[in-house]
Structures are given as C-alpha cells and as structure tokens.
Amino acid sequence: MWRTTEMTAVDERGMAKFFEGFQPPDGVKVELLRGEIVMMAGPDLVHNLIVEDVQDQIPRKRWARLQTQDVDIVDEASEPVPDLVVLDREAQPESGRLLPSQLITLVVEVVSKTSVDRDYVVKRSIYAAGRVSAYLIIDPIVAQCVLLTIPAGTGDDADYRSQRISKFGEPLPLELLGIELNTSDFGTFKGVRPHRHP
Questions:
Q1: How many structural domains comprise the chain?
Q2: What is the CATH number of the domain that holds 121?
Q3: In a domain, 21, yes or no
Q4: CA-based nearest residue to 175, from 141, 192, 150
Q5: Which domain of life, per UniProt (predicted)?
Q6: How far is CA 113 from CA 36, 193, 197, in A?
Q7: 20 to 30 A Cα–Cα from 152, which one of 57, 128, 162, 191?
Q8: 3-class state of residue 91 by DSSP
Q9: Which burial class, exposed, middle or buried, applies to 182 when counting CB atoms under 10 A from its CB (0-12, 13-18, 19+)?
Q10: Which three-class secondary structure state does DSSP give residue 185?
Q11: Which is it for strands 63-66 and 84-88: parallel, antiparallel or unpaired?
Q12: Could you give the dihedral angle defined by the CA atoms of residues 64, 112, 74 and 97, in that order, rounded to the nearest 10 degrees?
C-alpha cells in the first residue's frame, strides 16, 4: 500500500480538488480519506467472494447494490469507495460519479490484511459523519461481522451509537434491509495474525 499524506501547503479541501483529477495506475483502488489519498492493490479472492455473497442475499428489486461506487461525505474531504453500497432504488440519482452519503442505507467493508485500522477506525468515523444509517464490517481475519448503526456526532468525533458483533456462521439480522444475512459461507484468511478490533 502506498500513501500520499497531507502536504503542509495544501489543506484538505485542496487535496479533494487534486483528487478529482488524479489518475491511479491500472488495478489500483484509490480513496480519499480525510485529506489523505490511500492506494491499495486489488483485493484477495476471499474478499471478492464475500462481497458477491452479501450482494446476492440483498433483494435486487428493492435495493440498488453497488460495488466500486465513490461516496461523497458531506462536509468532509473524504471520498471512500466501499466494497458494497446499498440504497433504496427509489432514492438513487440518475447519474454522477459521487453518491451522496445521506442517500445510503448500508455500506459494507470487507477487511483486508492491510485495511484493519482504516476499516475499524477511520471509516467508522467517516461513515458516521456522513450519516450513513448502517456500516457493516466483515472481517475474514478474525471471522466476525460488526454491524454499526445510529450515527452521531460530527467530524473526527463522529461514531455509531450501536454495535453488534457476530461470528461467521451466525445469522446476522439486517433490519434496515428486512433480511437476515447468512454468513456461513464466508471465507477466512489463513495464517494472518489476529487483531483486537473493534
């Protein structure tokens, strides 16, 4: 993973402007997270299969299920690209690169070997600041799901008031979508040192 950190002469808004014209190398995922450009290599197969499994369980007729969708976080120099974005089909705009965060019902991030702190700490605060109703972290390192709901606060102090942790294999109710997520087929990373999040 490469990082281009904030420059002293450029504030976060300036970095956001720079990011608009930034062209990453092929096969590299790029996000703007609070003024920092973060680039990652393509995801592992385990990661992709989990995203596909979750997407398949969300009813397509009611919900738009979008991958690689840039999200606009209001009042933040952040444009995250969640692994999966879910919103009511009636709420989706007709076009545009950036999807306003307040339209989103659920974002899903599948933890990779290099994204643990980003997914559990940085993005947790960013999505809460953007008033995303629910944030689901799926973690193949420690075989758990963390469902965060009820966003509150602003900026760096934003967080979710409710947190529910479940292990892979346990059904996970997603009341906002009216479904129960089956996690029994989610794969795990082998030989990766466990962490202590959330």
A1: 1
A2: 3.90.1570.10
A3: no
A4: 150
A5: Bacteria
A6: 19, 9, 13
A7: 57
A8: helix
A9: middle
A10: coil
A11: antiparallel
A12: -50
72: amino acid identity, one letter: D
Name the helix (H) or strand (E) containing 36. Answer: strand 36-40
Q: Would you state the pLDDT for residue 31?
A: 84
**What are the pLDDT digits (tens) for 14-53?**
555 555 655 666 667 788 898 888 888 778 899 999 999 9
Is residue 11 assigned to a domain? no
Q: Residues 6 or more apart from 193 whose CB is under 8 A from it?
A: none
Q: Which domain holds residue 51?
A: 43-181
**Given a cut of 80, is residue 7 above it in pLDDT?**
no
Check residue 164 and give its pLDDT. 97
65-93: b (≥16 Cβ within 10 Å) or e? bbeebbbbbeebbbbbbbbbbbbeeeebe
How many Å apart are CA 162 and CA 175, to the nearest integer?
13
The reported pTM is: 0.86
Asked if residue 36 is part of any domain, the answer here is no
Collapsed DSSP state (helix, strand, coil) of residue 23: coil
Within-domain flag for 55: yes
